[in-house]
Design brief:
211 residues; alpha/beta; seven-stranded mixed beta sheet; globular
């Protein structure tokens, strides 16, 4: 099973994209400063259900500020060896122990690119999305232009997905990171920006509005 929507979490707002041929199309966006945030998110969900009446399956896109990227040398290493090397390289480079991190790797010749995120960040993102009924089934990231990770960092299926799927169904990753391919069909009013300082991994987690 693959997600049919991507919920992009950022410190400026929440953006929902719908899977389309060749990429993802924006459904809508809400600001974290919206005084009617729960209602705005409910409206976003209802717009999604108009596109997919059979239901949402959402991948959570974790804010880039919460992802730790690094590149390590792994000459002649297979996938198992690359993952072992990644665990070793992550030891001590974040505020978390390696067991408190989820990570993905991207082989690149004699090098391996690594993307890691705190499991507690994933849990908060999942709780937020589930609370607003966006049906989160997986968590991913979008590498920045300066990040050498190839493809989409995939941090696995959510706990929420485990309660939805039977034993014979897996959450499938995409091998290409989310790309928005067109603007919304309907114009929307501009959103106010939220002023948030840049954070390092562990300093601030997924934005969770107070309801």
């Amino acid at each position: 099973m693959k997600a049919n929507f991507a919920l992009i979490l950022s410190y400026d707002g929440i953006r929902l994209l719908h899977r389309a041929a060749g990429g993802w199309r924006r459904v809508g966006e809400v600001s974290l400063e919206d005084p009617e945030l729960p209602n705005a998110l409910n409206g976003l969900r209802e717009a999604a259900l108009e596109l997919e009446p059979n239901g949402l399956r959402t991948k959570l896109v974790i804010p880039g500020e919460q992802i730790k990227y690094l590149t390590i040398d792994t000459p002649e290493a297979d996938d198992t060896a690359r993952r072992s090397a990644a665990r070793h390289a992550l030891d001590g480079v974040t505020p978390y122990s390696v067991t408190e991190l989820a990570f993905d790797i991207s082989p690149d010749g004699d090098q391996t690119h690594v993307a890691a995120v705190a499991k507690e960040t994933l849990a908060e993102a999942e709780s937020f999305a589930a609370n607003y009924r966006f049906v989160p089934i997986s968590a991913v990231a979008i590498p920045g232009d300066e990040d050498p990770f190839l493809g989409e960092p995939f941090f696995g299926a959510t706990g929420y997905a485990a309660g939805l799927l039977d034993d014979d169904t897996d959450v499938e990753p995409d091998f290409v990171a989310v790309v928005e391919i067109e603007t919304p069909v309907a114009d929307s009013e501009p959103l106010a920006n939220v002023s948030v300082d840049d954070t390092e991994l562990g300093a601030q987690t997924t934005p969770t509005p107070t309801t």
